[in-house]
Structure formats: C-alpha cells, structure tokens
C-alpha cells in the first residue's frame, strides 16, 4: 500500500475538509506515492517518535497534532520542528496529521473520551455550521429516478439517520440548441420544450466533486443545468465536543476523583462544586474554553476540557462544574482510536502504537 492508500482510509474517518480553517492537516512530509512498510501512530511527532519509527522500520507516521503548523522559511535544525522535519526527510519517513478533522468527527477524539468515561448516547456539543449544501438540478421526466439514484449513491440526501432524502417538482424546461450542439432531445436551432423534474438534494460539502461527477455521468443532457447553494443549517453529526449521560448519577467529588483516575490525570483543576448530582457530562478534548457556553446551554452538570485560564473558571457561573484535566490527558486515547481503526481496516498491515512519551507538561 502507498501513503495515499492509507490516508484515503483515514479520511473516511475524518475527511480533511472537516478540519478548522486555521489548522494544517493532511500529508505534511513525504511522497503520497511511496510504498508504506509500516505505520506508527502518535499524538505528537517529535524527534524521539521519528527515532522510534526508524527503529521499527515504519516509514509513515500518523500524528494527531501537526508538527508543521505555520509556514517554515528555513530548515536549519534550529528549532525542534525543523529538526523533526529534517530527520523525517533524511530517513524517507512521511508524516500525516489529522487534528481538528478528527476533533470534528462523530467517531473521533470526543467520542473516544465518552467511551472511556462511560458516557452514553453522546451527541455533538457544537454542531458545525457552513458544511451543508443544496444541489438543485433538472432532468427529463423519464430520467429523473436514474439521476436521483446516482446522486444518492454518491452520498447526497443524507439527513441524520435518514438516507435517499430529496424533494422533486415537475415542470417544463425550454432550450434551443446551437449549431455546434449535439442535443439528446430536440433539434438544432429549434426551441424545444421538455417535461422535466426539478431535483433538490442536500449533501456534506466534502462530497461535492464526487457528487457532480456522478450527476454529469448519469444525466442524459449534453449540458447539465444545476445550482449549488451553501446552507446555514448546522450539521448535527459533525462538530466539536460531545455531551451525554452517565449510566448512574454520581456525587460531584466522587465523579471528579473517578475522572482523575480513569484519565490518568496528575491533577484536576475545577470550578466551585455546586452540591448537585452529576448525570449529564460534556467533553471537549484539547483547548475547550470556547465551548463553556455551549456546555451550559446543553445543561451539562460537568464540562471536561483543558487549557483553561484563571478567569475562564468564573464562566461556570454556578450552572455547572468545569474540570480541566490537561491537554495531553484529554487526547491521550486518540492514539488507541486510530490504531484500532487502521487495524480493522487493514488487518494484515503493520500498525504500531507509539511508545514515545510526548507530553511536554510535568508535575511535581
């Protein structure tokens, strides 16, 4: 298998267009056509991780965090980022990053936290906006079902737990074929009226090129009329964070102690305890201060995240308990998620969980 073969499998789990605009995801170092000897999965790509890949004879590193976040103007080995890139290139090792594409995945970082903590029936905490589009096209009456079927097969018409969703209306289309045209119906130079069906379907924006290819292949017309509109609808199956419920409610202090143990956290920083039972829990791996208001709106009893500043704990405002367990600690099980996923997808391929320690924060 090539690097590209494996990254295509990873993008089924976390399509790169789902990443946030500020992020730097995808293949950061290496040739997409290079044959892969083995995959090493890590949270961060540091020099010790590249050394581990060399030792294990793995030439593709799949990393959650991107080692290259902003532009590199020089490669002199002056910084740890430059040294990692130089060593990877020198040893013909490719580096691929997923980061916020996996954060936004309904089966990604936050789903894994929910699984580890036993949070049931999790739903997206902050559904992603701007990711749904509507395609409108027009097909002859007798070809409408064929066109719709092709669009559905390409991934259009999926709304939550429902598929093959569309809306159609019948009408009359008109056109006059020019002298160089080869119309499938009508005559060159003559105005033609055709009974047509207007087909409307929605789709997730990363499927657009595949969808249009399917439309053009299935449509009988030489020139296909279509319109694409970006919708403001939120995507309930895509976005940051998750919220769900514990099987059994717990006392706040007991829950925080269990949280610390389960997540292997050295410390749990939290806001004022409220003396209430914990049943509904919101989570957001990594830096999640921006989701405090969403956790309150979801009526969570506890919100688990990391990287909170002093004044951000005040934002709990007596409505919930905010728990900061550390950045690495919230994302540590992401490696296991990716190894399990790749092992199931390519069971006879060498996929290894990195043993290198990459957490830069130490505690006394």
From TrEMBL:
Gene3D superfamilies xrefs: 3.30.70.120, NIF3 (NGG1p interacting factor 3)-like
Protein keywords: Metal-binding
GO CC aspect terms: cytoplasm
Binding site for a divalent metal cation: 65, 103, 327, 331
Database matches in InterPro entries: DUF34/NIF3, DUF34/NIF3_bac, DUF34/NIF3_sf, N-reg_PII/ATP_PRibTrfase_C
GO terms, molecular function: metal ion binding
Any single Pfam family the record assigns to this protein: DUF34_NIF3
Entry-linked PANTHER family: GTP CYCLOHYDROLASE 1 TYPE 2 HOMOLOG, NGG1 INTERACTING FACTOR 3
Family: Belongs to the GTP cyclohydrolase I type 2/NIF3 family.
Quaternary structure, from the entry: Homohexamer.
Protein's UniProt name: GTP cyclohydrolase 1 type 2 homolog
């Amino acid at each position: 298998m090539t690097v590209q073969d494996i990254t295509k499998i990873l993008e089924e789990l976390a399509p790169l267009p789902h990443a946030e605009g500020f992020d730097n995801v995808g293949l950061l170092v290496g040739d997409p056509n290079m044959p892969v000897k083995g995959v090493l999965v890590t949270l961060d790509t540091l020099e010790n991780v590249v050394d581990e890949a060399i030792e294990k004879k793995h030439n593709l590193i799949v990393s959650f965090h991107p080692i290259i976040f902003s532009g590199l103007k020089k490669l002199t080995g002056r910084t740890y980022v430059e040294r990692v890139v130089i060593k990877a290139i020198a040893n013909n090792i490719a580096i691929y990053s997923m980061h916020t594409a996996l954060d936004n995945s309904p089966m990604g970082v936050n789903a894994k936290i929910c699984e580890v903590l036993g949070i049931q029936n999790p739903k997206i905490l902050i559904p992603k906006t701007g990711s749904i589009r509507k395609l409108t096209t027009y097909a002859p009456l007798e070809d409408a079902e064929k066109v719709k079927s092709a669009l559905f097969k390409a991934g259009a018409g999926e709304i939550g737990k429902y598929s093959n969703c569309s809306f159609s209306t019948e009408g009359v289309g008109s056109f006059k074929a020019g002298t160089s045209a080869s119309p499938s119906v009508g005559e060159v130079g003559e105005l033609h009226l055709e009974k047509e069906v207007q087909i409307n379907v929605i789709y997730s924006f990363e499927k657009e090129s595949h969808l249009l290819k399917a439309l053009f292949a299935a449509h009988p017309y030489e020139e296909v009329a279509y319109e694409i509109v970006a919708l403001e609808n939120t995507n309930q199956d895509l976005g940051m964070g998750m919220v769900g419920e514990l099987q059994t409610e717990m006392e706040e202090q007991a829950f925080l102690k269990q949280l610390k143990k389960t997540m292997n956290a050295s410390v749990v920083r939290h806001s004022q305890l409220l003396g209430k039972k914990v049943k509904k829990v919101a989570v957001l791996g990594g830096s999640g201060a921006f989701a405090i208001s969403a956790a309150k709106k979801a009526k969570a009893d506890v919100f688990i995240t990391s990287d909170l500043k002093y004044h951000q704990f005040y934002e709990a405002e007596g409505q919930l308990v905010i728990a900061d367990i550390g950045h690495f600690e919230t994302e540590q099980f992401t490696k296991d998620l990716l190894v399990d996923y790749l092992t199931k997808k390519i069971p006879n391929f060498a996929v290894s969980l990195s043993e290198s320690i990459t957490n830069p924060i130490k505690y006394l």
